Amino acid sequence: MISxxxxxxxxxxxxxxxxxxxxxxxxxxxxxxxxxxxxxxxLRDDVDLHVYEVPVEYQTVQxxxxxxxxxxxxQLVVHxxxxxxxxxxxxxxxxxxxxxxxxxxxxxxxxxxxxxxxxPECIDxxxxxxxxxxxxxxxxxxxxxxISKDAGRYLCDFTYYTSLYQSRGRSAFVHxxxxxxxxxxxxxxxxxxxxxxxxxxxxxxxxxxINCQHEH
Length: 216
What we know:
By secondary structure, this protein is α/β, with parallel strands linked by helices. It contains 5 helices and 8 strands, in the order E-H-E-H-E-E-E-E-H-E-H-E-H. The chain has a single domain, classed as Aminopeptidase. It has a 6-stranded mixed sheet with strand order 2-1-3-8-4-7, sandwiched between helices. A two-stranded antiparallel sheet has the order 5-6. Helix 1 links the parallel strand 1 and strand 2. It is globular and about 45 Å long. The protein starts with 8 loop residues before the first strand and ends with a helix.
């Protein structure tokens, strides 16, 4: 994170375990494999990358996400999850607060069926996902990137909203399809690398613009 003249930035990547553990409904957890590929590739030299695997448990998410923000004070947190319905790499624009009825891996569901009682119904990421999508698509990668406004009202959406609420919008969520449907781990890793670097660029330019306006 840029603060007090410190040039190094920190990015936290939190990958969701699949619904029934690392394997369960999919032969492998595509999101975790894709993040491991990203780790191999790395990001640009001025970025410190921290990777975590997040259990599919509401109560763990409520403890872990604030703890990660407190520990790292990162410039950005990017959450990655696998979607069995996805055929593209999908950038989620927002997280939702209510409608969580599915049981997690501990057979638990919040009694309120919401992330933050009294919180706004929806929180948008401060990152312009349309711009990120256009930029990544223009790079000519062999991966299709699309936009979504509904992360699914399960642990992906719950995690995203929790992180957006904690960070005042300085979070992102990327859904990837199962491996081989149609992309390889290497393709997904390269896509994540390009997406995150474009997110950082968009975030930095928007902050520079805000700072410039404040100076005037």
